[in-house]
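Re: How this chain folds, sequence and tokenised backbone to follow
How to read it: Take the token row as a discrete description of the fold.
Start of record: The labelled sequence and token lines come straight after this line.
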Amino acid sequence: MIFKCIQCERDITALRFHSAIAVMSGKYHIPAVRVTLVCPYCSQHFSADVPVMEFSRPDREDAQ
């Protein structure tokens, strides 16, 4: 999948990892991981809070 960076408007197919920290989600007050990724061209940061319940263990059969 390709999308355009909101800052430099270049086509992006992969973002660089910046950080992942444990937080309490602001809207629903549930444990989450704030994942921050960076545009490889202009260093624009993109972040999202992913609820912990959305993660699965890689050693389990139901992991995707």
Remarks:
- The first strand starts at residue 3 and ends at 4.
- The chain has one domain: 15-64.
